[in-house]
Every structure is written in structure tokens, then in C-alpha cells.
Amino acid sequence: MDTKPTRTIDRRRFVQGAAALPVAGLLAARRGRAGVAAQGEPVRFGVSGPLSGNSAEYGRIWQRAMDLARDEINAAGGIAGRPLELAYEDTQSDPKQSVPVAQKFVGDAGILAELGDFASPASMAASPIYERGGLVQFGFTNSHPDFTKGGEHMFSTTLSQVQDAAFLAKTAFERVGKKQAVLYRNTDWGKITQGLYVSALEELGGEVVAVESYLENERDFRTLLTKVRDAQPEVVTLISYYTDGALLAQQAPQAGLTAKLVANGACNSPQFLELGGPATEGVVTTTVFFPGDPRPEAQAFVGAYRERYQLEPDSFGALAYDGVKILAWAAERGGFEREGIRQALAEGTDIPSVVYGPFRFAEDRRVENAAMVPIQVKGGAFAAFA
């Protein structure tokens, strides 16, 4: 895998190559001019994800965005005239549950591709089953560096932890502060991410004065935060999900910690703002998708999502929506066959995307030249980090 810093995608490609499938579907659905209704045998994708449990909010975000994408596709006439169906299976993002779901999907000849799971360990536990079954595993939130190494059928549209950590470290070092403490969720994801972050920060010349972990079900962080306060950092970086990240932000002032807060992109959720309240003001994070992106296809998606749900879409919603649209694109070009879908993804050169604009997959089956943008909480909402 190429671990060099990511390069920004040319902005002309974003606009001039506006993704025809997502925009056409959106406009047709919103204007009520859907044309001929989808008929014939349904095209079915399986979805493996956390619809309950500790990560259920991410699953709810996924389902809202995926349902929107499905309905737009069907309102516009389906995929080459065939209706799209999504088969949801709740795994709680647990490897013990993702494996039997993978077996179920692979054994169902009507399932042409799979989306998920949410956490990389859950996806990677199931990868051998998908690889043997010749079923594309589209892990659009799977950032573990080894996820796409599981076989030729593993694709991801999120940046790897190597890329993500390097960009976050560069943003924090250059624009927030050089003397830092790092708090991380004591999970496989948290351990790997903090290790990559600390290495990237030190390589830039930053000073790491404290590195502390916490349990994923922990709720009282005051003792931990007091210990971090005594190390006198300028910045505290949170390798957290939105739930624990919001609590850490709330409890930091109670522990007398006045350092600026930087958070991993997993905190880029409306729930982080809702749970953390005023304590999240000023927090800096990064994202692959920002609702303020002016590209036509991005704004069409944001407008449709707001209209349907009266909510602001985040990067998780955008990636989920994108995943359905991308697989629909691949299914049509791949002749509605599992291997055809894999081949369409591997060989496509202008794959439509509301997140990136037209793109192609690199040899590691991640988005070639993907880029992130820094954002900050301002006035209780995420805004560009100017």
C-alpha cells in the first residue's frame, strides 16, 4: 500500500465529471418525474452492520442514507429497469455475528454484492468467506490498513488508518499545537490509530507528553483527564467514537483541562454535537465529506437528505449513500453477476461518487488520490476549518 501523503483531487474533475447516476436519481425523485417504474427480477445487495448495540447510531445513519439511494434509483427506473432491494442484517459490528451473516449472503445466489461491516475487525473476520464465495465486500468505513489485503473482492472508499492518522497529525501539528497528549479507545481500531498518529506526529517534530487509553464502555474520565492535565499539553487528541468523544469533551473542563481538542473523524457526527453540547465548540476534526462542499452532486445529495430527514448528513451517511450508488453502477456494467461487479469496480476509471467526484480504485482497491478536509465545530455545527 502507498503510505505517502494523499494528493488533492483536481477540482475540475469534481465538477466536470459530476456523477450522472447519483444526480439523475436525485433530480428524478425530487421532481416526481421518475419515468418508467422498475420491473423484473430485483437486484439485491446485502448490508451487514450495527442496527443495534453500541454502534447502532452509525447503523441508523447508514440505513437512512442507503434507503434514500435505493429509492432514488428505483424512482428513476431502477438499474437497467430492474428494481434494487437491500437486505439488512444486524451484526452489532461484532465479528461473531458478521461471520454467519457472510455465510448467509454468500449462500444466497440472489445477493450480488455486500456492503459493510462498520468496524474493520467485524469485516475482516468475514472477508475469507466473501473471498471464497466470489462476493464483493464493499467496506466503505473500513480503515484498517489490512482490510483490502483480504482478497481481490475487498474494496473500500474510506481512507486507511495510515492516511487518516497522517492527515490528522499534520492538521493538528501545523494548525493547532505541537505539544500534545493522546487519548484513545482501547480497541484494535484505537490502538492501531493512536500508534500511527503518534508516529506521524513525532515525525513532524511534535512532542507527545502523554498517551493514555480507556475502555470503550467507560463513562467517567475525570481521573484520566486530570492525569493528562498535569502533563500540560497544548492539544489533546481524541481517538474516539462520537459517544466517548463527547463525554471526554464535556469532562475536560471539570478536570481543569484547558488544552485545545482535536478528534478523530469518527467524531464527525451530529450525535457528537448533540451529546457534547457547548463542550464540543472549537473541536477540530477531519472528514472525507463536508455538507458545505459546493459540487453539484454533493449539494444534490445534501438537499435530498435534508428534505427527507430534516437532518444534516455526515461523512458516514455520504459514504453509505455512495456505496449503494457505486454498486448499482457496477452491477449494471458487470452484467448483474458477482464477478462482473468485481471487475467493473477494479477496472472502472470514472466511477461516480458524491464524496470524491469521478474516481478510480488504485491497486490496493482504495480510492486513488483520495483527500480529506479539516473541519471545526463553530456555533454548534461543523464548519470549514479556516
Q: Could you characterize the architecture of this molecule?
A:
With 386 residues, this protein is of the alpha/beta class. The chain folds into two domains: 213 residues, Response regulator (Rossmann fold), CATH 3.40.50; 126 residues, Rossmann fold, CATH 3.40.50.2300. It contains 13 helices and twelve strands. The strands form three sheets. The protein has a five-stranded parallel beta sheet with strand order 2-1-3-4-5, with helices on both faces. A hairpin with a 2-residue loop joins strand 11 and strand 12. Helix 9 packs parallel to helix 10. The longest helix has 20 residues. It is globular. The two termini are 31 Å apart. The N terminus is likely disordered.
Radius of gyration: 20 Å
Q: Structural class of the secondary structure composition?
A: alpha/beta
The largest sheet, given as strand count, sense and whether it forms a barrel, is: 5 strands, parallel
- Summarize model confidence as the mean pLDDT: 91
Q: Strand percentage, roughly?
A: 15-25%
- What is CATH's topology name of the largest domain? Rossmann fold
* CATH homologous superfamily title of the largest domain: Response regulator
Question: How many domain regions?
Answer: 2
The CATH class assignment of the largest domain is Alpha Beta
| Number of helices in the DSSP assignment | 13
- Low-pLDDT sequence parts: 1-35
**What CATH architecture label of the largest domain applies?**
3-Layer(aba) Sandwich
The residue fraction in helices comes out at: 40-55%
Give the strand line-up of the largest sheet.
2-1-3-4-5
Distance between the termini: 31 Å
Oligomer status: single chain
What letter string, H or E per element, gives the SSE order? HHEHEHEHEEHEHEHEHEHEHHHEE
In total, the number of strands is 12
Shape: globular
